[in-house]
Amino acid sequence: MNAIEQYLKMADEALQESKLMLQHQFYRGAVSRAYYASFYAVQACLESISVNVKTHQGALLMFSKHFIKTNLLPKQFGKFLQDNLEQRLIGDYEIGFKAKLPDATISLENAETIVSGIKELLQNETTKH
Asked: Which CATH architecture has domain 3-128?
């Protein structure tokens, strides 16, 4: 299994974890795993063009530069990623924050959109070569 496939597998696992946490009302965890599903899919994209980054912010910047601004993926993906990152940071680092069902549901829906869109893009790129 190559690195792109590994990142996509990690994205799928994180989506499943987010869904399970949502079902069991662990909303903060669901938000976090939804973000990581998106992040792993972004890493797969960057790996597909041999771009290596060391930070989350760097990954988001390079993803935007190479995939959003070039219109390979919809602009809403950038907004979804930023929203999911902000929710994860609040959930992980703000003492006393309690994520709610709507927060977790939106984060999961954003992540599902991002992961499926990236998979479709990478599949199309693979079939072209």
From this structure: Up-down Bundle (1.20)
